[in-house]
């Protein structure tokens, strides 16, 4: 759990994909301007401090890299440095490579400590696009170790409606193939968690067990006080030299209760409740919200009414 003078709280949510603009379990990729690529906010120091803690305590769980990805990693580091020099020069840092084989010798590691985003490098191979390198300090219920070197179709196996042979999986692969270096794509995902932890991993076995037992995330707890909306802002861009694809994931955490203070409270809360109501059993199990969905919907509808 990360603290920065208290829980990670924003006066009002920065992103609200639950307003209906981003449907759950939809690809939803849209082009955006490169000026909007990296997001930096007041919680930047706390995010970087948490990344350093995780690297120090569990490096093998938050960083992976295949041999032969060094050049592509450097390409990522150079792109991030260029963006920061233009938009946030106080955050741009140079680094001196360390002895080969150490974490400190990985350009992607250094790049990750300059931004709040997680950085995932996807590479095309005989089995399609696979996860070839990554810094994932803030996973949203998945395991970097389990997905390392896996192709997209296997990475997406647990996701309802995705996985091998599915239309969404085939569309994503074609999008990766067709993506041009002069394009930047963005999509959003969301979930609800108890507490404000940024590091939230989940193995495939743990997900299966959770789906079988369907425990509440809020047993004996005040849902209104402890529920946080976890927003994933994801971007995709193809690297011009290596032709690898960089997948960035920026986590935003907002207390659910801030919706009640929003000037568009009724619209946001009603839409959020509608999104939750529309999830089927498999989707609820995947998000771990089966036991709590009805209580969450009731809470949101109460907010919409001003209760």
Automatic annotation (TrEMBL):
UniProt-listed Pfam families: HODM_asu-like (PF11927)
Protein known as: DUF3445 domain-containing protein
């Amino acid at each position: 759990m990360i603290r920065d003078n208290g829980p990670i709280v924003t006066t009002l949510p920065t992103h609200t994909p639950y307003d209906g603009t981003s449907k759950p379990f939809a690809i939803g990729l849209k082009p955006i301007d490169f000026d909007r690529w990296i997001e930096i906010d007041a919680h930047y120091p706390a995010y970087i401090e948490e990344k350093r803690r995780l690297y120090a305590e569990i490096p093998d769980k938050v960083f992976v890299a295949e041999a032969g990805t060094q050049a592509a990693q450097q390409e990522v580091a150079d792109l991030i440095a260029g963006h920061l020099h233009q938009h946030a020069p106080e955050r741009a840092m140079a680094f001196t490579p360390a002895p080969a084989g150490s974490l400190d010798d990985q350009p992607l590691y250094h790049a990750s400590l300059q931004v709040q985003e997680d950085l995932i490098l996807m590479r095309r191979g005989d089995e399609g696009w696979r996860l070839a390198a990554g810094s994932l300090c803030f996973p949203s219920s998945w395991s970097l170790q389990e997905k390392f070197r896996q192709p997209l179709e296997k990475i997406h196996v647990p996701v309802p409606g995705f996985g091998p042979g599915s239309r969404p999986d085939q569309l994503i692969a074609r999008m990766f193939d067709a993506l041009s270096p002069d394009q930047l794509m963005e999509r959003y995902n969301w979930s609800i968690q108890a507490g404000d932890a940024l590091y939230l991993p989940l193995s495939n076995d743990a997900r299966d067990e959770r789906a079988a037992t369907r425990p509440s995330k809020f047993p004996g707890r005040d849902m209104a006080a402890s529920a946080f909306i976890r927003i994933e802002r994801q971007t995709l861009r193809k690297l011009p030299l290596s032709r690898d694809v960089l997948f960035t994931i920026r986590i935003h955490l907002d207390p659910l209760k801030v919706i009640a203070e929003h000037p568009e409270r009724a619209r946001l809360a009603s839409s959020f409740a509608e999104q939750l109501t529309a999830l089927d059993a498999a989707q609820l199990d995947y998000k771990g919200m089966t036991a709590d969905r009805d209580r969450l919907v009731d809470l949101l509808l109460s907010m919409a009414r001003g209760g």
